[in-house]
Amino acid sequence: MQNKVVKINEACQTIQNGETVAIGGLTIHRKPMSFIHELIRSGKKELHLLTLGGSIDVDLLIAAGSIDRIDAAYVGLEILGFAPNFRKAVEGRVIEFNEHTEYSIMAGLEANLIEAEFIPSKLLIGTDILKSLNYKTFRSPITDDLLVAYPRICPDVAIIHVQRCDEYGNCQINGINAIDLLLAKSSRRVIVTTEKILPTEDFMSVPSSTNLPSTFVDTVVESPFGAHPTSCFPHYTYDLWHLLHYMESSKKGKTENYIKQHITDLDSFEGYLNLVKDDVKRVTVREP
Amino acid sequence: MRNFTSDEIMITCMSREIRNGDIAIQGLTTPMAIISYYLAKATHAPQTTIMQLAGNILTYAKAPPQISLLFNEFEAMRRAVHIGTQTEVYEVIFKRLESIVEFFRPAQIDMFGNTNNSWIGSDISKLRLPGGFGISDVAALYPRTFYYCPRHEKRVFVENVDHIGGLGFRTKGEFDQRRDIHIISELGVFEIEHESRRMRLSSIHPGIKIENIKENTSFEILTAEKTQQTSPPTELELQLIREKIDPLNIRRLEYLSGKTRENALLNILDKELSLTI
Q1: How are beta strands B144-149 and B100-104 bridged, if at all?
Q2: Burial track B58-90 (b if 16+ CB lie within 10 A, e otherwise)
Q3: For residue A199, which of A26, A122, B103, B270 sits 20 to 30 Å off, Cα-Cα?
Q4: Residues 117..176 of A with a Cβ closer than 8 Å to B: which?
């Protein structure tokens, strides 16, 4: 096992324009927000984004002009409503949105994992979702049943925020898991941002809690509060006030101002945390 | 005057669809769904298994818990007996198809039970919705598919959906196996009739007239000669909803929009913050 700890800007430099980037977490839960900020700050372009359920992560990258394609089963701010820049960019055909379902993403990643061209399944037959995805159907060579070929999905890099890991990338993900383990296994490279880096000895007493082992992880970045304004159980819950503020600023067509003030005018995510320290305090449950 | 609100009779109807021993899955943001699961467990279906946070978190509770807006995940984790993955949720679904209950909220539903959460209009340029998440995966798979529509309006109950996500019935085909689709709205309970493949009124909520349903539906709903009335919520059901499960009235957010909704939301958040952290 080798030490994989680097600074966030070093980790970000490994990402090339045009790569397919898979984002972990789900909607407003455990999104790698510090890394999203870094992608924007470093001016990445033409990224293809893949996420099971996106929210402010996707919306910010769209507003910053960092992505030209998004594959997801849902992009919205849950109880708060629509993701404003996502909606505008898709309606205006500024970006391409492939609406997936949970299964179409999982099957595509699973196919990649086992190095299959596709996974056959009956799911989605008869729906317009299948037509929009433009997936092919075929007759089973065994039963002659109609099947869908779910083609492999091959992310270049997965970005996953976790509660704790060691310097080798042995991670304990807590709370909602979504498809993060599958993302890690099926992406070519894996960058983990973590609330805290702990000694490996801490993991040896509870090995069954290590649900993402270092064998799947390439890079580790320490990033306390790195998921704000999304949640990171049990440290802090999602910051619905901040998310409302974000939506409000987008409504006025001023996401550019939000990005400037919260991301590009600042040197680092620590600068952002300092700027929104009262917001962070409000949603912090336990000191990490 | 009714002594209950639209959300309360809807939650009661949703709860009564759950059979003792069923596995109830909560998807994304659906407060009324989780309230109905807790209600079922506290009344007629104590053996209900509940999977929260898109099904990831298997929870256990003897007494009905109070739902939370700000601490949804924390609330579930307090009672977690197992944390799964999204892949595992589908493994449970495939294995236990007959027992799964999941309430979906469609943006549009048509007379044949097809639903849409993708976009409204002839193409994506008018109103791009967040997406259906897992609805289209499982709508045609479940032997019993459940939808709830807090707003029974013409733009929700449409003749044909603009884009089929959750598959109902329309054309004959080999994917058209026999299955049940139930719809619960603020006005009544509906199902898709097997013979005609069309939406039929099963029962009308107390205080609602058949004209109310006709005026707010874009197609003709089939009705029986004598329409059944929905049994109103019992005193116990109302007390559980109002005092135990959702005293902050989070369920009401499913009906509100715009500034009214935002204010109600902030009000709930402030209350939760003062109570918990």
Answers
A1: parallel
A2: bbeeeebbebbbbbbbbbbbeebeebbbbbbbb
A3: A26
A4: 122-129, 132, 145-146, 174-176
Q: How many domains does chain B have?
A: 1
First-residue to last-residue Cα distance in chain B = 40
What are A239's two structure tokens? 């910051």
CATH 3.40.1080.10 segments of chain A: 8-100+154-283
Its domain, for residue B15, covers 6-252
Under DSSP, the state recorded for A220 is E
A179·B87 Cβ contact <8 A: yes
Closest chain B residue to A145 measured between Cα atoms? B174
Q: Within 10 A of B216 (CB to CB), how many other CB atoms are there?
A: 17
CATH of residue B52's domain is 3.40.1080.10
Q: Compute the CA torsion angle A165, A169, A171, A177 (nearest 10 deg).
A: 130
pLDDT band at A252 (very low <50, low <70, confident <90, very high): confident
**Cβ under 8 Å to B: A residues 176-235:** 176-182, 231, 233-234
DSSP H helices, chain B, are: 6-16, 31-42, 72-78, 86-95, 135-138, 210-215, 235-239, 258-276
The answer, yes or no, to whether the previous bond of A234 is cis (omega within 30 of 0) is yes
Instruction: Let me know if B97 is exposed, middle or buried by CB neighbors in 10 A (0-12, 13-18, 19+).
Output: middle
CB contact under 8 A, A237 and B71: yes
Q: Cβ of A124 and B137 within 8 Å?
A: yes
So what's the ipTM on this one? 0.95
- Judge whether B276 lies within some domain: no
Specify if B207 maps to a domain: yes
Residues 60-99 of B with CB under 8 A from A: 69-71, 73-74, 77, 83-87, 90
| HEC assignment per residue over B72-98 | HHHHHHHCEEEECCHHHHHHHHHHCHH
Could you give the C-alpha distances from B191 to A120, B112, B134, B175, B202, in angstroms and in order? 32, 10, 21, 19, 7
B262 vs A126: CB contact, 8 Å cut-off? no
Write the pLDDT tens digit of every residue in A187-234. 999 999 999 999 999 999 999 999 999 999 999 999 999 999 999 999
Q: Is the peptide bond before A32 cis (omega within 30 degrees of 0)?
A: no
Give me chain A's average pLDDT, please.
Answer: 96
DSSP string, A143-186: T--EEEEEE----SEEEEEEEEE-TT--EE--S--TTHHHHHHH
Which residue reads 């000669």 in tokens? B225
Task: For B148, list phi and psi in degrees, rounded to 5.
Answer: -130, 140
